[in-house]
C-alpha cells in the first residue's frame, strides 16, 4: 500500500515495521520518523489506527489468558530464528504445545 505521495520514509517501510512501532520495539529515532510519516500520510495513519484498535481489542478480550510456558518458549525460539535470518521450519507450534492433545483435537479447538 502506498498513498502515491513522496515521503522521507516510504509507506512500505512504515507498514513493514508497524507492529514494531505499536509494540515500542524500535529506536526513538525511528519512532520519530514514523510519527512524522503518520502526520503526512492519511492511509498509513488509518492503517496504524486500525491495527492499534485490533491490538487493544485482543488485549482486552484475551489478555487474561495464561500462555503455557512451553508454547511461549517455542514461539520465542521461532522469533529468535526469524530475527537471526535462519530458516524457520514450517510447522504449527500450537500442535506441540498441549501434551495429550492430538493434532486433530487441537485443530478442532482452534476452529
TrEMBL record:
Organism of derivation: Streptomyces alboniger
Protein name as catalogued: Mycothiol system anti-sigma-R factor
Chain positions covered by the region annotation Disordered: 87-111
Signal peptide stretch: none
Source domain of life: Bacteria
Compositional bias per record (Polar residues), positions renumbered to this chain: 102-111
Name of a matching Pfam family: zf-HC2
Start and end residues of each Putative zinc-finger domain: 11-44
Amino acid at each position: 500500500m502506498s498513498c502515491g505521495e513522496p515521503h522521507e520514509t516510504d509507506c512500505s517501510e512504515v507498514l513493514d515495521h508497524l507492529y514494531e512501532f505499536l509494540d515500542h520495539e524500535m529506536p526513538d529515532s525511528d519512532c520519530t520518523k514514523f510519527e512524522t510519516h503518520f502526520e503526512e500520510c492519511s492511509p498509513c495513519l488509518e492503517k496504524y489506527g486500525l491495527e492499534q484498535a485490533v491490538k487493544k481489542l485482543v488485549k482486552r478480550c484475551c489478555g487474561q489468558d495464561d500462555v503455557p510456558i512451553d508454547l511461549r518458549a517455542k514461539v520465542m525460539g521461532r522469533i529468535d530464528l526469524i530475527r537471526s535470518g535462519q530458516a524457520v521450519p514450517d510447522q504449527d507450534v500450537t500442535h506441540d504445545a498441549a501434551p495429550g492433545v492430538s493434532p486433530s483435537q487441537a485443530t478442532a479447538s482452534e476452529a
